[in-house]
Amino acid sequence: MTSNPEPEPPTYVFEKPYIDDHRFLFAFPNEKKTPSARQIQLRRLYDILNLSLRRDDLVRATRAWSILARCKETNWKAMWTLGITLLENNVRVLESNPRKIDYLRTMLLQLPEERERILVELAQHYIHAGRHRDALDELEFYLPSFPYHDNPVLHVYAGLLCIFIAQPPEPVGGNDIEEATYDSNLLSRAQIFLERAKALDPDNIVAREFLHKLHSLSQEPTLRSFASHDSEDETHSKGYQSPQPKRRRSNS
């Protein structure tokens, strides 16, 4: 007598396969393939932050940022570009203010992997604020060291700032300044910066064209300004001042 084998019990599936049915508007830093419920909430909050900025709702964006910055899953330093936007008075108007400059100088020390981009941004904000001498001092402080020394964009900025500051002061009250010339020391420094930029990036048209301008200026018997500008820099409002000494690195 043969016995019929008992049927095998059905296999029960206690865990359903993960289906990503969540839709987010913005890419989240350090995104995971299978986010937890907390990760999903953080993603939603990140979307609220970006949407609020685009709607010029700085109050709501600041609240979202303050929550995200306190979460251990969020690297707030990596979101430094959003942080500087929150310091705007109006996100639709590009401007600079002392808080932004202080923030960027702090991030320059806190985020080493982004320091070249941050230094470029810092130089731009100095220029927007009319603080051209401070921008040049900041660049000259970092350019001799690695990795800034191999960045052609930073050398171009330094060269153009030297040319800008080297220009003679504009006449005050309509009186022409006789024999107004460029500062030859600053022009020599500009040439060094631009030649370095051209060596690093031979196709850099800005470095090439301004080197040609410098060569043309050196051939003229009387140097004259080739760029008209309106500046709030104290170099032009009070007349030319000798270059300030560079900052020294602290031993601490």
UniProtKB/TrEMBL annotation:
Residues 222-252 are annotated as: Disordered. One of its GO terms (biological process) is nucleolar large rRNA transcription by RNA polymerase I. GO terms for cellular component: RNA polymerase I core factor complex. InterPro entries: RNA_pol_I-specific_init_factor, TIF_Rrn11, TPR-like_helical_dom_sf. One of its GO terms (molecular function) is RNA polymerase I general transcription initiation factor activity. Residues 227-237 have a biased composition (Basic and acidic residues). This is TPR-like protein. It comes from Rhizopogon vinicolor AM-OR11-026.
